[in-house]
Design brief:
This is PfkB family kinase. This protein is α/β, with parallel strands linked by helices and 308 residues long. The protein has 11 helices and 13 strands. It has a single domain, classed as UDP-N-acetylmuramoyl-L-alanine:D-glutamate ligase. Strand 2 and strand 3 form a beta hairpin. The mean pLDDT is 94.
């Protein structure tokens, strides 16, 4: 199965307690497609400027990522600059330059329109809907969003949510979208907005998967060192969707649980180095080994009868 992502390809400048990096490869579509490419062929729809390095394109192509939908336009590439403190749980944005991304209007190549799995990255919900107008009968549509769209484009976002099967949000975004402080109540409210499932990302505390009848909790992998959490959420979504797209029998509860764990596995690699440095070198045996470690971390036997 193939997987389509529509989102940003960017150049990031990062400051963490462990160092600084200037104009490194970033963007939601970049992290997502790189993560997903370990499992299935990925297709990207995005825009970059004249200054975007060819070496970055070569890396993505080397991962087998289809870049027919990536356009290069006159001007500068979308840039983001952020700083993390020692807790590394939230970035302070120092500078955002939308540049060519400001006028991004996704136009899918003809070959992309029958892609069975679709991920709508964190872009304006009207653009997300425009993508859905162009695809034909996808098996599953997932979307991401953020507080900016929840607050400023709520009506457009609600219309998009009626058309997606699965939503990825963090816990703060879930509370804001639902108007509920409790995460469980927030998830239930989001399910009533249209998605069949919602994944609530909780950073170092893992992630929760909700559908109308079940909840599955997946921890984050315990790491001794975390260098850069940029892109971890998009990497999680790429691993999750990439795993789902490998299924020959469709999406069932067992596959969804494996997808949750694989999302956490891939995100755990991303944060170990700056930008996509760790994803550039990680191997499939390493991924399989860490997936197995997750199983060990979360396994326990039945309690049996309690006796006084």
């Amino acid at each position: 199965m193939t997987l389509l992502v529509v989102g940003s390809v960017a150049l990031d400048s990062l400051e963490t307690p462990f160092g600084q990096k200037e104009d490194v490869l970033g963007g939601s579509a970049t992290y997502f497609s790189t993560s997903a490419s370990f499992f299935v062929p990925a297709r990207v729809v995005a825009v970059v400027g004249e200054d975007f390095p060819e070496a970055h394109l070569s890396f993505l192509k080397g991962r087998g990522i289809d870049l027919e939908g990536l356009t290069r336009q006159p001007g500068r590439t979308f840039r983001w600059k952020g700083r993390y403190g020692y807790e590394l749980n939230e970035a302070t944005t120092l500078d955002t330059q939308l540049n060519v991304f400001q006028t991004f209007s996704p136009d899918l190549p003809a070959a992309y329109r029958d892609t069975p799995y679709v991920f709508l990255g964190n872009i304006h919900p009207e653009l997300q809907s425009r993508v859905l107008d162009q695809v034909r009968s996808p098996k599953l549509v997932a979307a991401d969003t953020m507080n900016f769209w929840i607050k400023g484009s709520r009506e457009a976002l609600l219309k998009t949510l009626e058309r997606v099967n699965l939503l990825f949000v963090n816990d703060a975004e879930a509370r804001q979208l639902a108007g509920e402080h409790n995460v469980v109540k927030a998830a239930r409210a989001i399910l009533r907005m249209g998605p069949e499932r919602v994944v609530i990302k909780r950073g170092e505390y893992g992630a929760l998967l909700f559908d109308k009848e079940h909840v599955f909790a997946c921890p984050a992998f315990p790491l001794a060192e975390v260098f850069d959490p940029t892109g971890a959420g998009d990497t999680f979504a790429g691993g999750f969707m990439g795993m789902l797209a490998t299924s020959a029998v469709g999406v069932d509860s067992s596959m969804l649980r494996r997808a949750m764990v694989m999302g956490s596995v891939m995100a755990s690699f991303t944060v170990e180095k700056f930008s996509l440095e760790r994803l550039r070198e990680v191997t499939r045996p390493e991924i399989q080994a860490r997936f197995a470690e997750f199983r060990t971390l979360t396994h326990f036997d039945d309690l049996g009868p309690l006796e006084r």
